[in-house]
Amino acid sequence: NILSMKYYDEYMRWARDRRLGVEFFFEIKANVTRVHVRKLADAGITVVQPGVESFSTPILSLMRKGTSGIQNVAMLRYMREHGVRPSYNLLVGFPGEPQDEYARLARELPKLAHLHPPMGVPKVEFHRFSPYHADPAAFGISLRPSAKYQCLYPFPEERVGQIAYTFERDDEEQPDSGYLSSFLEAVDRWHKAFAQDRCTLTWQQELLDVV
Prior knowledge:
Elements: H1 10-18, E1 24-28, H2 34-42, E2 45-50, H3 57-62, H4 69-82, E3 85-86, H5 100-108, E4 126-127, H6 131-134, E5 143-145, H7 157-163, E6 166-169, H8 181-193
Parallel strand pairs: 1-2, 2-3
Antiparallel strand pairs: 4-6, 5-6
Helix pairs in contact: 2-4, 5-8
């Protein structure tokens, strides 16, 4: 589902030069540079879904994301500079996540009020082909096929696990999510405060008549 990095050259030039008058949407990697984002804008790509997931480097490392929190912040800044709207989520509920990181993020999020806020804050899902599915033991978890497959397939759970795409944990009770409260409140305030036409840093030169 993710736009190949190869497309930032030949394809972007092709779309830019033809002035197609069509708005494009792509899912992209979050570790894009300012040059990448400028090429997206030049090609007429107005909305993208970057894999941000978190602004916490420890949490990103925990999920083996390969990016850092500040890289994700920089990406949002590049998007604002070039008029490309990012549609993204901040995920929570990772196995072994440091809970105190969310209190720190709650204190830091107001500094991002001029950037696009996330669409939502859903709980992480466990999909086939993800590191969690490939090696759940490495994360200290155990997975089973999502219960919804029981309504679709009259097979034993073991067989359903061979074809399922979505999984859920079967090694924990309903977790206590109280540690997320300040973080969720900060995201809600971000949503209420953000206005694209007003959340900008502008500079204007005025020439004064000297008498």
